[in-house]
């Protein structure tokens, strides 16, 4: 196998073939149950945004019991843009979701291989990519939790490390490009994963800078990182500054209180349990929360080999030792002994589950595992080959059974988006990101037409778009209308094209106030429209992203010119 792997053009094919069993159960008609059963719904709603050219998509029409929701103003949208485009090309929504999970497996394996190949060569890189693919937590992400965004974050971790390593080593502008795009994509794929991964990234960069003495290139990394932040600004800035306009209390309270979800040492190191349940207070979670036997043993071996060979392999040994300390910190933050840290760092509360650090852990331990294979190969070629082969066989024997759904549903899009399944999706997680003007979520579906609170009126050609509602109205007597649409900053109401003042606190005939758009209208035949427009912060964030895209385009132009000149 080693000789075959040395022929580089075979590697992507061999790697993909090796990991096919991880997702082969998805290659069939139908769908599978998952805890976050909104992935298909989000793709479905993104398609409506794309058809209306609502880009960036911020508001979707059907969530919140069809009163509309600022879903993608706060929930990372990147993978759903891909899903929406696939659906527009003719792929069923549920098949699109399965394809996205499959692509997550394939791309994360390939990006890990690319990174490790640049660092330590083909054989350790291949083993490291397999380690990165056969992580128990990855199986739980896909087949239990259905956490599509969090799963896709695995694609960008290696790309960020690879591009920064190449930038520090070679100082070429093309790697600024790769770094900025990778960071930007991570931020709009899963902001929480970005929050806990980027500190690890800066530890990595600082270590390389010190060991390689690349201080000039260090500032290029800083520039690339800032450019990545700029690319994602259209999403991250509204998340930060407009969170006060939605209900967020359900994201951190009750079941989502981090205090209930610490992981015991037994679960982390000495359990190979895989379940389709959830995590709860105590050590009896029915969920795979192990770092993996093979992964932590290899990590320990990497440290031993790094200490033995430090003088001969200063760079790799330094990386091993620093990453090992980082891994210890990551493991500590998952254990209850770290609760004092969680209590003193308020932003950690948004992580919800301390075991989410398993994503960082999986990446670091897979890196350490690859470095263990590399250092063992340096000591003795045969030992390195045998170790790598044994690692891959062990991973298959221990974890292959995890990568399959608990059950399978013989359904199509027609089933998923109709009847009781459709009704359920309209209300799942209905309190999350509910506009603040609503005291509680609605308990029944939004009506097709506005309510007439006062006066007399008849509606015609009333339409609900992705981020707007519009139609004609014949007002026979001065009226007060209440639209079946949540109010939210940026909502503009117009009558015959002219903006009118609206309010959101006229709650007549409601059990509790829903914060719906309400306004007065004079007698006559009118066209009414309510549409979500940009607030100042959204406008600024869009401009920052646009300027960042121009800088990226400039870098691409410069790189092409350099290639042509050479």
Automatic annotation (TrEMBL):
The chain crosses the membrane at residues 9-27, 72-90, 151-169, 175-206, 218-241, 287-308, 315-335, 355-376, 383-403, 540-559. The lineage of its organism: Bacteria, Candidatus Daviesiibacteriota. This is Membrane protein 6-pyruvoyl-tetrahydropterin synthase-related domain-containing protein. Signal peptide: none annotated. Keywords: Membrane, Transmembrane, Transmembrane helix.
């Amino acid at each position: 196998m080693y000789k075959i792997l040395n022929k580089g053009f075979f590697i992507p094919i061999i790697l993909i073939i090796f990991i096919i069993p991880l997702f082969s159960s998805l290659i069939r008609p139908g769908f599978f149950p998952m805890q976050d059963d909104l992935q298909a719904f989000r793709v479905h709603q993104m398609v409506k945004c794309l058809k209306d050219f609502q880009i960036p998509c911020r508001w979707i029409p059907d969530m919140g019991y069809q009163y509309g929701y600022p879903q993608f103003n706060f929930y990372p949208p990147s993978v759903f843009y891909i899903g929406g485009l696939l659906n527009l090309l003719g792929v069923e929504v549920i098949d699109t979701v399965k394809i996205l999970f499959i692509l997550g497996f394939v791309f994360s394996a390939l990006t890990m291989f690319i990174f490790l190949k640049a660092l330590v060569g083909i054989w350790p890189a291949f083993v490291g990519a397999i380690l990165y693919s056969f992580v128990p937590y990855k199986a739980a992400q896909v087949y239990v939790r259905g956490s599509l965004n969090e799963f896709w974050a695995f694609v960008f971790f290696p790309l960020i490390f690879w591009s920064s390593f190449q930038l520090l080593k070679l100082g070429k502008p093309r790697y600024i490009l790769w770094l900025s795009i990778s960071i930007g994509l991570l931020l709009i794929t899963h902001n929480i994963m970005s929050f806990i991964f980027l500190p690890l990234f800066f530890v990595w960069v600082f270590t390389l800078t010190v060991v390689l003495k690349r201080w000039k290139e260090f500032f290029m990394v800083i520039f690339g990182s800032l450019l990545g932040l700029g690319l994602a600004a259209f999403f991250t800035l509204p998340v930060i500054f407009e969170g006060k306009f939605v209900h967020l209390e359900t994201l951190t309270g009750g079941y989502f209180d981090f205090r209930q979800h610490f992981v015991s040492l037994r679960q982390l190191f000495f359990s190979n349990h895989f379940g389709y349940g959830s995590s709860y207070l105590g050590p009896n979670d029915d969920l795979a929360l192990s770092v993996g036997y093979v992964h932590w043993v290899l990590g320990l071996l990497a440290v031993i080999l790094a200490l033995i060979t430090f003088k001969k392999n200063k760079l790799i040994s330094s990386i091993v030792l620093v990453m090992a300390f980082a891994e210890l910190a990551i493991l500590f933050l998952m254990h209850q002994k770290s609760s004092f840290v969680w209590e003193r760092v308020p932003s950690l509360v948004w992580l919800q589950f301390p075991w989410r650090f398993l994503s960082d852990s999986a990446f670091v331990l897979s890196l350490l595992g690859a470095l263990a294979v590399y250092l063992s190969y340096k000591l003795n070629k045969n030992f390195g080959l045998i170790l790598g082969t044994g690692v891959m066989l062990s991973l298959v024997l221990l974890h292959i059974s995890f990568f399959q759904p608990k059950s399978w549903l013989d359904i199509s899009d027609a089933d998923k988006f109709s009847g009781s399944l459709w009704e359920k999706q309209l209300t799942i997680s209905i309190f999350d990101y509910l506009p603040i003007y609503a005291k509680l979520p609605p308990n029944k579906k939004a009506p097709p037409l506005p309510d007439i609170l006062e006066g007399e009126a008849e509606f015609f050609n009333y339409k609900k778009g992705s981020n707007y509602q519009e139609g004609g109205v014949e007002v026979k007597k001065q009226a007060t209308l209440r639209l079946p649409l949540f109010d939210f900053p940026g909502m503009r109401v117009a009558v015959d094209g002219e903006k009118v003042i609206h309010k959101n606190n006229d709650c007549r005939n409601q059990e509790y106030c829903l914060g719906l758009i309400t306004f007065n209208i004079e007698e006559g035949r009118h066209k009414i429209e309510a549409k979500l427009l940009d607030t100042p912060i959204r406008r600024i964030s869009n401009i920052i992203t646009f300027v960042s895209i121009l800088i990226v385009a400039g870098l691409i132009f410069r790189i092409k010119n350099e290639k042509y000149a050479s």
